[in-house]
Design a protein that fits this description.
This protein is an alpha+beta fold and 452 residues long. The protein is built from 18 helices and 16 strands. It has two domains: 286 residues, 2-Layer Sandwich (BirA Bifunctional Protein, domain 2); 89 residues, Rossmann fold, CATH 3.40.50. The longest helix is centred in the first third of the chain and has 20 residues. The radius of gyration is 28 Å and the shape is globular.
Length: 452
């Protein structure tokens, strides 16, 4: 009995129409990146585990897809380890590589390896798949595409401002109604100072990062389990539930964190970014979100997250500043900042809100109907002229029934069909049928080119 084919959970096949839509998103994002002077790079799908582990926090390390070493990898495991196996110890013997978890850490590795060939500040974009051993659900996949844009080698807050401009431009072009949420890890550390729990800073950020998913009471429970005092949790809750305008939140936290050095620096950065943004034509709503934490360990300054207003799907873009990610690889004090657009979630949002333009449903603009060998020879010449003019054109490969050929055009949403018979060849014209209106018009190939 033949094996029924399948693919791993959390992965997907993409049909031609899905690929056309995905390419529309990626081409839009790429065009904005290039508008701001960013250049493309690519890195391998797999990295050494030593590159990946320890960069994403404990939870991130658990979600890494590890690749078994080739050959008889079990031979390298000491007998004592086999007798009493522990996964975290054995993995070092059987796996040296893993699939990349994101594009930022490989980018930092790339910068260190190629630092002598790079002009700083280095502005790059990267559009490639990443993999996470997560539980698949709506908007969360094990294999998905990220569209990253980063600038490294500069501490200037103008970079944060430029990234927010890029976010604004991308989602305006895609017509996605969204909110840009902004916070700063230094502000979060200042809050940890204010409540007297700096040693629990990582636990606080990991718990607060789940606030939208699990609610304030569950966050408090997690923090209590982590060892925070009731007094500290109550003081933190006072901050997390504070409502107001961006200006009111800035005034509220400015006063609260005035005696915390790190927190004060973070507030100065927040105020500077908002001062710049208020001078620019940013159409997207921007929110200073005191609860925004983004749990990745490498963020050190600004953190950014974008939420689609009308669709419950999680963040569709996010990122922040990392002051010393390259230091892990031997190149200290090279600050960077970047954001990542989630192409798959953006796709889901655009499908739910019916935002794809009609023209993205078809890549072929003209189909020549095939009536036989003599007509083929005539049509091939005309097809070549249209293609040379940049018009996507097909000829049906065989002289099938007209109904079958027209159904082919309808199924592929080809807007124009060309019919060429004996009369058209004598007159050196084309009969062009508009598949939307059904109207047929005789015209020369040059007239058709002009119409397209």
């Amino acid at each position: 009995m033949a094996q029924r084919p399948s693919i791993p959970k959390g992965t997907r096949d993409f049909s031609p129409i899905e690929m056309v839509r995905r390419n529309y998103i990626i081409d839009t994002v790429k065009s904005v990146f290039q508008l701001y002077g960013y250049l493309p790079i690519e890195t391998p799908a797999m990295e050494n585990l030593s590159t990946l582990t320890g960069k994403y926090g404990e939870e991130g390390d658990r979600l890494l897809f590890k690749i078994l070493n080739s050959g008889n990898f079990l031979n390298k495991i000491p007998n004592a380890k086999i007798q009493n196996p522990k996964a975290n110890e054995i993995v070092n013997y059987i796996s040296e590589k893993g699939l990349r978890f994101d594009l930022t850490v490989p980018f930092a590795r790339y910068v260190v390896q190629h630092r002598n060939d790079i002009t700083f500040p280095f502005k790059r974009y990267q559009i490639q798949p990443v993999w996470r051993a997560d539980r698949p659900q709506k908007g969360r996949y094990r294999e998905f595409f990220q569209c990253d844009v980063d600038v490294i080698g500069s501490h200037s807050l103008l970079n944060e401002v430029e990234l927010i401009q890029i976010i604004n431009d991308v989602f305006n072009k895609l017509q996605i109604n969204n909110v840009i949420k902004i916070n700063n890890r230094k502000v979060l550390y200042g809050i940890a100072e204010y409540i007297g729990e700096t040693e629990k800073f990582t636990d606080i950020t990991v718990a607060v990062d789940k606030l939208d998913k699990i609610g304030i009471e569950k966050v408090k429970e997690e923090l209590s389990v982590c060892g925070l005092s009731k007094k500290a949790i109550d003081r933190l809750q006072q901050i997390l539930i504070f409502k107001g305008t961006n200006e009111e939140k800035i005034i509220f936290l400015d006063k609260m964190l005035e005696n915390t050095e790190t927190g004060k620096n973070g507030m100065d950065e927040i105020k500077a970014v908002f001062d710049y943004l208020n001078m620019l034509s940013i159409f997207t709503k921007m929110e200073f979100d005191l609860t925004l934490a983004r749990g990745l360990d490498y963020y050190t300054g600004a953190i950014i997250e974008v939420i689609a207003k009308d669709v419950r799907i999680g963040s569709i873009c996010g990122g922040g500043r990392y002051d010393d990610l390259t230091g892990i690889f031997g190149l200290p004090d090279v600050s960077g900042v970047g954001v990542s657009f989630g192409a798959d979630r953006i796709y889901d949002v655009m499908m739910e809100k019916n935002l794809f333009p009609e023209e993205t449903l078809s890549t072929t603009q003209v189909l020549f109907i095939n009536f036989g060998k003599e007509e083929e020879k005539y049509c091939l010449h005309q097809v070549g002229k249209l293609r040379a003019a940049g018009i996507n054109t097909e000829i049906f490969p065989e002289a099938a029934k007209l109904k079958k050929q027209l159904n082919y055009a309808n199924n592929k949403k080809i807007p124009f069909v060309v019919l060429v018979g004996e009369n058209e060849m004598k007159e050196n014209v084309l009969t062009v049928k508009d598949m939307n209106s059904g109207q047929q018009t005789k015209m020369t190939v040059n007239e058709l080119k002009f119409r397209m």
